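thought: fold this chain, then report.
action: predict
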Amino acid sequence: METVFESLPVKEFCVFAANYIWPKRSMVGEKLVLVIHLEPGQRYAEEFQRDINARNNRLLNYKRIHGVVVLDEDFPRTASLKIKRILWQTVSRVWTALRRFCLVKEH
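observation:
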């Protein structure tokens, strides 16, 4: 499913289960969240949101993202430069990014 978002004009992105970022200790009703880091000077505008919505609508319902979080910093990396999926080191950054949390429209 991440291949649908690969050509987004962003510096980097990752898809997380919402319960991974904001633990509810439940697997029922799990939702996916797209976390993006924009290029310097880039803004999250309505056109960008429409692009994400169009890509999202190409996915099967259970694979669709239900929200977008804009992160202000680079993702933490492993020694091999892969994105660390353990966000506990950046939880405060994610909470800061919540100010800019945007819901994704489904069609």
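thought: worth noting. The mean pLDDT is 78.
final: tokens above.
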